[in-house]
Amino acid sequence: MAIKLVMLIVFFSVMVGVGLYCRRHATDVNGFVLGGRNVGPWLTAFAYGTSYFSAVIFVGYAGQFGWKFGISATWIGIGNAILGSLLAWVVLGRRTRLMTQHFDSATMPEFFGARFDSKAVKVISSLIVFIFLIPYTASLYNGLSRLFGMAFNIDYTLCIVIMAVLTGVYVIAGGYMATAINDFIQGIIMIAGIIAVVFAVLKTNGGFLSSLDALSRVTDESVSSSPGVFASFFGPDPLNLLGVIILTSFGTWGLPQMVQKFYSIKSENDIGKGAIISTIFAIIIAGGCYFLGGFGRLFTTNELVNAQSCDSIIPTMLSGFSPALIGLIVILVLSASMSTLSALVMASSSTLTLDFIKTVIAKDMDEKRQLLWIRLLIVVFIFISVVIAIIQYKTKAMFIAQLMGISWGALAGSFLAPFFFSLYWKRTTKAAVFSSFAFGSGIMTLNLFFRESFPALLASPINCGALAMLSGFIIVPVVSLLTKAPNQRLVEEAFDCYDKRVVVSAKRSLSD
């Protein structure tokens, strides 16, 4: 216990210290929300990766999908790295940086409002962000609490309050730069931790080949009658596996807290470097988590999972390790959770302040008051999510993967297609954006309250979220072609930012 407590105290001290150190970067809205658009590739890439992967992945998704798909769950991690990281940087990184700087927008709703010259688009998208980031945040606490309970045997409420308060302190003090530096530190911890945990889990069963052999002997007639299916290439349910890959990989393209990382990139070279760094990070973290979860059936039973839910699988796997390794695991999950929480509260509070309060309620708000409101709303957002997390835990209303699936599905289903087409297609219309907002958030709200009425395949928030995202790529172009074209002058002005002439070295571009 002493070892684990010392590790925790050092970790928390460093996080808070970084927040206090970065106060000088958080004196205006641009510095507080975007780090002055002057963040290098390593910090940006790690901020992207640590915001992507949290306790939801390590405890909830790795446990649930490792149990459901076996070793084939590793494909989810590979998809997250190639589609959710590398392709996102290549397709969105440069254009997002250029057009958001052109509009001087600090948030996704602010970008939508400027791109379509619409206050209504800005306000509605800000409300969607604020509402649907809350269940995602609540899911972070849930996953963390189970590991804290296993390691320290402390009350769940105390656990989430400590985490929330300490995250709030360094975000409120240092803003985006504090979160970026802490994300880098936390990312290093996550990499070291996941590598150590994977080796420890495999060693328990005699190494990789012995573990794979043992997994091939596991049978579960309720899932599949095929022998060795949990150790097979595509697992027992390839179709549902594909749905998870789509949601968890492409979903990041439409999440405000993820896309906002591209706003702060410093230079052209940083985009290429950031893409490579974030992809490698994702392969290690996401690939390692889902690979680890694939061996969950070697450590627990159907009876225990049915009694305690899939969220108990990973803590059960890790409960027999040494105190030092358990301490490292707890700090690993703390790092993942606090980095994601800081990104969520930053995105939500800045969006509500800049895109709702400043636009609708206090139009003449000066920069000092904007900063004050952002900081106050960070406190409010954390408080609401803590209350929801405690209520959810006590009522057992929904487990981790469902909470995250609803949040991701609503946000990505609403924003992914409109954001993509806004960057690439001049014909995109305001009506198409509203249609995507309505469908994405609407279908996930219906799934939350009337799930039993959905077809079996879409009853899962994961599959429903994947459908919402893919549907946006049909809704936006179809509605755009059927509705009045946008103001040509405004569109040309927006896309002119891509055509601005710049001078580069010969190694970047061959001369004519």
Element-by-element helix/strand order: HHHHHHHHHHHHHHHHHHHH
Question: Under CATH, the topology is which?
Answer: Sodium/glucose cotransporter
Question: What is the straight-line distance between the termini?
Answer: 67 Å
> Quick one: CATH superfamily?
Sodium/glucose cotransporter
Shape: globular
Provide the structure class: mainly alpha
Uncertain ranges: none
Proportion of helical residues: over 70%
Strand content: under 5%
Radius of gyration: 22 Å
What's the β-strand tally?
0
Mean pLDDT: 83
Number of helices: 20
Describe it for me?
This protein is mainly alpha-helical and 512 residues long. It contains 20 helices and no strands. It has one domain (2-394): Sodium/glucose cotransporter. Helix content is 75%, strand content 0%. It is globular and about 65 Å long. The model has no long low-confidence stretch (mean pLDDT 83).
